[in-house]
Amino acid sequence: VQLVESGGGLVQPGGSLRLSCAASGFTFSSSTMSWFRQAPGKEREFVATISWSGGSTYYADSVKGRFTISRDNAKNMMYLQMNSLKPEDTAVYYCKRGNSWGQGTQVTVSS
């Protein structure tokens, strides 16, 4: 299993970023996938999850209405569109499948 996140960076409050997760080594199209994040000095927390088909999604209350999780099974890719970003969204964002994690991508929201 290999999960590789990309798309992080520095953005101003109110801005947007789109994270990507490239998956390989397993049957992506039949796997539930999730995004988690870990802020400095805090525990890793759930952000969003998406079913194998993309038909069901679930979000943490803190990101609901601002973030959108999606996937492209033909490309073995998962995405997280993040809008209206806040400083408290600053964290390393991780892609997860089962017990497997990516290396993370840093998102920093600051003026």
Salient structural properties:
single chain, 111 residues, mainly beta, seven-stranded mixed sheet, four-stranded antiparallel sheet
Overview of the structural elements:
The protein starts with a strand and ends with a strand. By secondary structure, it is mostly beta strands. 0% of the residues lie in helices and 51% in strands. A hairpin with a 2-residue loop joins strand 9 and strand 10. The protein is globular, with a radius of gyration of 13 Å. The protein has no helices and eleven strands. The strands form two sheets. Strands 2, 4, 5, 6, 9, 10 and 11 form a seven-stranded mixed beta sheet that branches. Strands 1-3-8-7 form a four-stranded antiparallel beta sheet, with no helix packed on it.
Q: What gyration radius follows from the Cα positions, in whole Å? A: 13 Å
Total strands: the figure is 11
Structural class: mainly beta
N- to C-terminal distance:
37 Å
Please, what is the average pLDDT?
97
In which range does the helix fraction lie? under 10%
What spatial form do the alpha-carbon principal axes imply?
Answer: globular
Number of helices: 0
The largest sheet is: 7 strands, mixed
Q: Identify low-pLDDT runs.
A: none
User: Beta-sheet strand percentage?
Assistant: over 45%
- The topology string of helices and strands comes to EEEEEEEEEEE
